[in-house]
Design goal:
- With 259 residues, this protein is mainly alpha-helical.
- It has 2 domains: 1-66, no CATH class; 97-254, no CATH class.
- The radius of gyration is 22 Å and the shape is globular.
- The chain contains 10 helices and 2 strands.
- A two-stranded antiparallel sheet has the order 1-2.
Amino acid sequence: MQGVKQNPRTSGTGGNHLYYSKIFELMNKSRELLGNKKPPHIRYGGANKYIIAQNDYQCQLNFNDFEELFSEERLGKFLDFTKNKEHALELYETDSKLSASLCEVLNYFEVGLRNNIDKSMSKIYGDWLKRTDLFDQYAVNIMEKNSKLSDYTFGFWQHIFGTGPHGSYDKMIWKPAIFNGLQHCKLSERKHIHKSLRHIRELRNRIAHQEPIVFGVRFGKENITLSVTDIVNDLLYVADKIDDRLVAILLELIGENND
């Protein structure tokens, strides 16, 4: 396709089809903040630009271009809903940007969650990552494959909020450890937190696999479809149990609800 010189933020149908994020600006800022203390083995090129000039690839893209690039099946979901190609493309882009924004929210939340659990478990069990006797086989398999806390899956954190074999998690993990590291929380809320984490995990996985989220997230076992707003409320509910400062960070990212 022949490139054209125009504003990438206003080119194409709908006005945002070549929206360039601030990634390059953030990369430059990170380099400035690292300064002379940059991590070893990181190589920065001498030229402060990409090997391909941005202006060479500014062009008008329409629905058919997106359909060819990302498949008829993928774009078809949005067209079936809107019955209009321009609106379908606008909804597709909105879905993509919503997913990208939620990645940052989920990142802060997951790190805050696992750090809180780690501190609570360490107070009771010390080096608890070696205490495989406390967990069932599902959890042990994850523990044996990963030596660092950051390598543990979100599914692991959700899982240990369950009852465990014969109620062992409730007795050995929830009551003596995790519960005592939470705030504004009652002992009876474990099941609610577990369910909320299941909702958050499914949203996280859909985003990670580039699945649409604007149409909601289906939970077969519960026979419900939750909106992104529903699941964000689940996330804020759990965050409120972890730390007020985490809630403040998340709300800053999410923005105000003026409805």
